[in-house]
Amino acid sequence: MWAQLSTHLQYWFIAILLLLGLYGILNKQNLMKKLMAMNIMQVAVIIFFLTLGQKAGGTPPVLIKGVEGAEAYVNPLPHALMLTAVVVSLSTTGVALALLVRIYRHYGDLEEPDVLRRLGK
Amino acid sequence: MTEHTPALIVLVPLVSALLLPILALVSKVLARGWTLVALLGTHAGSVSTLIYVLANGRWHYYLGGWAPPWGIEYVLDPLGAGMATLVSFLALLVAFYSGPYLKDAAPLKTGSFYALFLLVTAGLLGMVVTGDVFNLFVFLEISALATYGLVAMGGHRATVAAFRYLIVGTIGATFYLLGIGYLYAVTGTLNMADLAERIMPLLNSQAVVVAVALILAGFGIKMALFPLHGWLPDTYAYAPAPVTTFISAVMGKVAIYVLYRVFYFILGGTGPVLPALTVLGWAGAVGILAGSLMAIAQRDFWRMLAYSSIAQMGYIAVGLSLGNMMGITGALLHILNHAVVKGGLFMVAGGVFWRTGIRDIPSFIQMSRRMPMSMAVFVAAALSMIGIPPTVGFFSKWYLVLASIEASAWPFVIVIVVSSLLNAVYFFRIIENSYLRFRTAEEDEVAVGGTELPATMLVPMVVLGVAVFMLGVLSGEVVTNIISFALPWGTQ
């Protein structure tokens, strides 16, 4: 149990973070909070990828004289992928914020039930 | 030039999209012309690629000359090139169709509309030609983000619909990303061909099971598979007509293409894919019935078509889930059928709304007198939706029924037959209103005079209306010459 926890603790954190985000999207009424929950969910996946690339005692993947072999270096690929994913997440947030500004200007409110009630009219 | 066609069919719309807002400030005509030329070039590229791969087999294109699995490769096989041809063809038609919609729009709005439209096209084309699962995620997000912007152009209700679509769509994309994270964790590669090789011994590991579940959930959301369809009706009903036409015609299809690609080509259609296919099939079958019943309950024509889309995606899901040759052929033919038909139907719905402001089904009385051509296209598309013999809809449903019988999946046979009757019910309401009912004297006064649509809107509609019959008559040729090469086994 303890051994399992010590090697897998980060995955538990990621799972909790992911479910926290999903819970927030499903359960919060405020559209802004939904967006924040969505971000939390994306961050969980980003950390998941970064964890895959991590290794104990690895150095940054820049060729150092005297340090030979792939084992000594951290896998840089997940980091490169997540750089892209961060940009995607950033642009999604940007688009979402722009939409929220327009919703707020027209409906004067970001509480989902209010917005939906006025949408019906 | 020609050896770079696979990259060009993605890059041309992508680069044009960046130029368009500036071009539109100079001249709106220039922006529209540029868009059409770019899409025409893209379509020509897709068609020539399709012809090439049908004759010579799979085409691997290494971006920047980096060989896989280190670099990203585009892989064009008959399936991918066929999808690219379909996507670029509908993009061209919809761009042509959207002209009158933007006649009074400000230059910047015109520019951003065409720019976002080209971005969606580039994203979808990228998804079908790429041979890298992470690259696919990036293209997925390019097309999705541009779609949110386009949907939001439909006014204040559309903004809310777009925001909800954004949240739900991002959950889908995040699930997919997590899914490929698991695949990467067990295999250490993101290249599809490499992945397919390395995953085989690991097929029953827990990580692959989780990955399959996550990818199914992610693209289930994107394709509006039955219990995950909540975002679709509002989005389709409030978005501007050209946007609804395009996303209803091809976006869901590209999502299910990805499921097909991952389940059959990467994971080989065995191991944990089998229970996923069972879930896909039953969700599709329930979605067929629920979507059809909900469509009957709608008063709004656009919403009716939106619910009908959920049902039609169900057919494709059922076809894929059967896993026999007949079923997958039927599913691919239905992808083609539904793209053409639903594109045509939404073009008619958008045209009628643009000309007369009518969306309510009861108000369609005598529409055939006012817009004879548009309603003729509507009837052609409706016949294909119901599955009347000379149309392509009949043949795709025929394959699906035969496949269900072959797999002894009797519930699916019943669902397909019953839902054809339900389709007839909700399409006949409109045919009845527009052809067979006459207005009373007082309704006559209220009704606005309407005339046929301008040629820019009519031509793409008629092309799709004719295509319904052409593809029906030629369905045998389409199946033997293209679709049979797009099956997961027996290809080059």
What features would you describe in this structure?
The complex is a heterodimer of chains A (121) and B (492). Chain A is mainly alpha-helical. Chain A has a single domain (2-120), classed as Helix Hairpins. Chain A has helices at 2-27, 31-53, 77-107, 112-120. The radius of gyration of chain A is 20 Å and the shape is elongated. The model of chain A has no long low-confidence stretch (mean pLDDT 86). Chain B has 492 residues and is mostly helical. Chain B is 76% helix and 2% strand. Chain B is built from 20 helices and two strands. Chain B has helices spanning 5-26, 28-56, 78-97, 107-129, 133-152, 156-187, 192-199, 206-222, 232-238, 241-266, 273-297, 301-322, 325-356, 367-370, 372-386, 392-406, 410-436, 441-446, 455-473, 475-481, and strands at residues 59-62, 73-76. In chain B, helix 2 runs antiparallel to helix 3, helix 4 runs parallel beside helix 10 and helix 6 runs antiparallel to helix 8 (206-222). The model of chain B has no long low-confidence stretch (mean pLDDT 87). Classes of the chains: A mainly alpha (121), B mainly alpha (492). Chain A binds chain B through residues 18, 22, 25, 31, 34-35, 38, 41-42, 45, 48-49, 52, 78, 81, 84-85, 88, 91-92, 95-96, 99-100, 102-103, 106-107, 115-116, 119, and chain B through 134, 137-138, 141, 145, 148-149, 152, 156-157, 159-160, 162-163, 166-167, 170-171, 174, 177-178, 181, 184-185, 190.
